[in-house]
From TrEMBL:
The keyword Lyase applies. One of its GO terms (cellular component) is cytosol. Catalyzes the decarboxylation of four acetate groups of uroporphyrinogen-III to yield coproporphyrinogen-III. It catalyses: uroporphyrinogen III + 4 H(+) = coproporphyrinogen III + 4 CO2. This is Uroporphyrinogen decarboxylase. Its EC number is 4.1.1.37. One of its GO terms (biological process) is protoporphyrinogen IX biosynthetic process. Pathway: Porphyrin-containing compound metabolism; protoporphyrin-IX biosynthesis; coproporphyrinogen-III from 5-aminolevulinate: step 4/4. The gene is hemE. The record marks 83 as: Transition state stabilizer. The lineage of its organism: Bacteria, Bacillati, Actinomycetota, Actinomycetes, Micrococcales.
Length: 355
C-alpha cells in the first residue's frame, strides 16, 4: 500500500483510455466501482462527523477521498467521489442519503405538476464539483479521472419511488400509464445528468461513466422505447469532448447492445454474463468493463485467482477490456484483497500477454 502516485504521463494515453478506445495496452487496466468508500479505514476516518452529501460538496474532502484508493491499490483510474443524487440536490431537490439505506427523496415525483416543478441544473450550482475535479487531476498526473452521473431511469426510480426500490412498481406504472409524464421527467433528468457529466469532463475528467444501476429491471422493448433515447441524450452532452463514455447497469444481459447503442464506447458487464458472451452480444463493436462478482472477494485466494485469469482470457474477445467488478465493492471487503487483485491483473496481463 501507499504507492506513490505517478506524476508524469498523459492520462489521454493511459491504459484505461486506450482500452476504452480499443487500442493496444501495456497492461489490462483495472479499477473498482465504489473503490472510494467504506472498505477503506482511511475513508471511514476522514468521513467521521460529515454527512455523505456534505462530503461530496467539500472539494478538499472529495479530493482526498478520490485519491485514497489510487494511492493504496495502484488502480489505473480514479473515480470521482460523489453520488448520483448530488446533481439532483444541487438543482434543488430535497434528497438525503441515509446510511445503510441509500437516497431518500422527501417529495416523490408522481404527476405532471411534480415534473413541471423539477428544477434544471445550472453549471454554476456545481462550481465546487469543477473545483474538485481540477484539484484531483492536478494531483493525479498521468492517472485518468473518471467522472460520472446517474442515468435517467435510475434517477427517475429514486425520485418516483421516494427511495430504493426492489420492484420499481411506481416507476413502471408511470412509464406504462403516463408515458408523456415519464418522457418529460426523463428529458429533464437527461439534461441534469448531461450537465453534471459536462462539468466534470470540461474540468479535466479523462472519461465518464453513466450509471444505470437498476435498468436491468426492464425488458428490452421497454428499454428501447422508454429509456434508451434519454440515456442517449445524457451521453450526447459530452459527445464533442472526445473522451470515452462507459455505460453500466446490473442485470443487463438482455440490454447490453442497446446500452452500447445509446452512445457508449465501453459497456459495463455484471457477473452474470461472461465477457466473451458479452462481446458477442455487443457485435464486437464496444470495449467491455467488468465482471468479477464482488462477493468473490470474500473467497480464498486459491478460488479467486482462477476466476481473475478466466475473466482476463475472455476479455480478450472484446476490442478492449477494463478489469472491474460486476458491481460496487461491498463495504466489508478486505482492502488487501483489492490490492492483490490489482497486482494479479497487472502481472498476468503485462508484456502484451493480454493486449
Ligand atoms: O468509488 C466510487 O465508485 C465513487 C463514488 C460513488 C458513490 N456513489 C459513493 C457513495 C459512486 C460512483 C456512486 C454512484 C451511486 N450512488 C450509484 C450507482 C452505482 C451503483 O452502486 O450502482 C447508486 C445507485 C447510488 C445511490 C446510493 N448512494 C446508494 C445505493 C448508496 C448506499 C447506501 C448505503 O449506505 O449502503 C449511496 C451512498 C454512497 N455513495 C456511499 C458511497 C461511498 C456510502 C455512504 C457512506 O460512506 O456514508
Amino acid at each position: 500500500m501507499s504507492l506513490e502516485l505517478p506524476t508524469t504521463g498523459d492520462p489521454r494515453d493511459s491504459d484505461l483510455v486506450r482500452a476504452a478506445r480499443g487500442l493496444p495496452v501495456r497492461r489490462t487496466p483495472v479499477w473498482f466501482m465504489r473503490q472510494a468508500g467504506r472498505s477503506l479505514p482511511e475513508y471511514r476516518a476522514i468521513r467521521e462527523g460529515t454527512s455523505m452529501l456534505q462530503a461530496c460538496r467539500t472539494p478538499d474532502l472529495v479530493t482526498e477521498i478520490t485519491l485514497q484508493p489510487v494511492r493504496r491499490h495502484g488502480v489505473d483510474a480514479a473515480i470521482f467521489f460523489s453520488d448520483i443524487v448530488v446533481p439532483l440536490q444541487a438543482a434543488g431537490v430535497d434528497v438525503q442519503i441515509v446510511p445503510g439505506v441509500g437516497p431518500v427523496v422527501a417529495n416523490p415525483i408522481r404527476t405532471a405538476a411534480d415534473v413541471a416543478a423539477l428544477p434544471s441544473l445550472q453549471p454554476d450550482a456545481v462550481e465546487d464539483i469543477a473545483t474538485s475535479v481540477r484539484q484531483i487531476t492536478a494531483e493525479l498526473g498521468g492517472v485518468p479521472l473518471i467522472g460520472f452521473a446517474g442515468a435517467p431511469f435510475t434517477l427517475a426510480s429514486y425520485l418516483i419511488e421516494g427511495g430504493p426500490s426492489k420492484n420499481h412498481e411506481h416507476t413502471k406504472a408511470l412509464m406504462a400509464g403516463a408515458p408523456e409524464v415519464w418522457n418529460a421527467l426523463c428529458a429533464k433528468l437527461a439534461d441534469i445528468s448531461g450537465t453534471f457529466l459536462r462539468v466534470q469532463a470540461s474540468a479535466g475528467a479523462s472519461a465518464v461513466q453513466l450509471f444505470d444501476s437498476w435498468v436491468g429491471a426492464l425488458s428490452l422493448p421497454d428499454y428501447l422505447r422508454h429509456v434508451q433515447p434519454h440515456s442517449a441524450a445524457a451521453l450526447a452532452a459530452v459527445a464533442d469532448l472526445d473522451i470515452p463514455r462507459i455505460h453500466f447497469g446490473v442485470g443487463t444481459g438482455e440490454l447490453l447492445a442497446a446500452m452500447g447503442q445509446a452512445g457508449a464506447d465501453v459497456v459495463g458487464v455484471d457477473f452474470r454474463v461472461p465477457l466473451d458472451v458479452a462481446a458477442e452480444r455487443l457485435g464486437d463493436a464496444y470495449a467491455v468493463q467488468g465482471n468479477l462478482d464482488p462477493a468473490l472477494l470474500f473467497a480464498p485466494w486459491e478460488a479467486l485467482q482462477p476466476v481473475i485469469a478466466d475473466i482476463l482470457t475472455r476479455g480478450k474477445s472484446a476490442p478492449g477490456h477494463i478489469f472491474n467488478l460486476g458491481h460496487g465493492v461491498l463495504p466489508d471487503t478486505d482492502p488487501e484483497v483489492l490490492t492483490r487483485v490489482v497486482e494479479e491483473v497487472h502481472a498476468s496481463s503485462a508484456n502484451g500477454q493480454n493486449s
